[in-house]
Amino acid sequence: MGRGDLSDAEWERLRPFLPVSNGRCGRWRNHRQVIDGILHRVRTGVQWRDLPERFGPWKTVYERHRLWSADGTRERLLQQVQAAADAAGEIDWDISVDSTIVRAHQHAAGARTDPPPAPAPAPAPAPAPGSKGAEEMEHQAETPWQSLVARLVEVVLEVRAWAARVAGSPASST
């Protein structure tokens, strides 16, 4: 038994919930060996092909993991084991999560809190093609992102105005 493998007590608790072979596909490889292989891969992040040989053929471990994930066996197994442990009073469902456990992303610090800028004024009419002003206008053209942001600002302002009007109107019953 390697580090991180199922202990005998864990295996005995898990074994009754595992599916049995249907007999059509031949004999299944030892479930305990395969589950230990799946747990090893989840714990270490190693590629399937690099699983140690003590877990059996990597393709067997991969196929069993894929099959049990697809047909809901893994989810059913988790629910049954949790229900059994909960019935025995072995699960404490009270948890506490704070910022020392769940950290914000590094880019979350220093986010802007000021409102978005007001929409830009309408552009001046374009100069005649071929003139000096036309070349300058070409470089000052609004990018798609700028026009999208401007439109979003307009929509937000419209919604705020609508909400203010609705808040000021008397309630109506239907």
Automatic annotation (TrEMBL):
Domain of life assignment: Bacteria
Coiled-coil residues: none
Domain Insertion element IS402-like: 6-77
Bias (Pro residues): 114-128
Keywords: Plasmid
InterPro entries assigned: IS402-like_dom, Transposase_6_like
Nucleus is among the record's keywords: no
Region named Disordered: 105-142
Keyword Iron among UniProt keywords: no
UniProt name for this protein: Transposase
